[in-house]
Amino acid sequence: MGDWIKNTIESLGxxxxxxxxxxxxxxxxxxxELIMPLAGYSANLPGAKLNVIGVFFAGLCGSVxxxxxxxxxxxxxxxxxxxxxxxxxxKWITVSSKDITKAKRWFDRQGSKxxxxxxxxxxxxxxxxxxxxxxxxxxxxxxxxxxxxxxxWVGLLTYSGYxxxxxxxLVDKYLAPISKIVLGCLALAFIFWxxxxxxxxxxx
Length: 204
What we know:
Helices cover 78% and strands 0% of the residues. It has 204 residues and is mainly α. It has one domain (2-203). Helix 2 (14-26) runs parallel beside helix 4 (52-77). InterPro entries: DedA_domain, VTT_dom. This is DedA family protein. It comes from Hassallia byssoidea VB512170. It is found in: Cell membrane.
């Protein structure tokens, strides 16, 4: 996959970076943790045709556009229809109805800030647009929080690749376990919240 990403960036430049980040939002197995560090590294090569600012904005545009692709199905199809589609076709993009349910619950608990936080968490960043759409979150606030969160994520990855140079793959290597820890902590926090809420309801 690394060679394919590299060839796309080399042949299409900024357009290739934007396209890769757009597709990354649709197909989670394509990692932004590899795309943007590689793009940042490419901008730091001698005689590079790309510059780091252009790389950042190309990645940001692709990421935000990809988020909209998940937002509108949530808005117009609703939760139950999306779950049915996910169970039927989700294996092609590694998304299930359980993933949608988890994202919806987290959004209901965190509100609008879930979009901002979610865009910073691998494994959640792709799906957080779905509950935002299901909950009819207004488009402008959605775009604001999505752009803000995406900018922080894309900027971090781009700068890491730019600084690390040929060692850009270390970003993916070290972020992978950190991502699992973050997801684990979010799961524990959600379980704690559910238990606390049940106890509170019983007391009432």
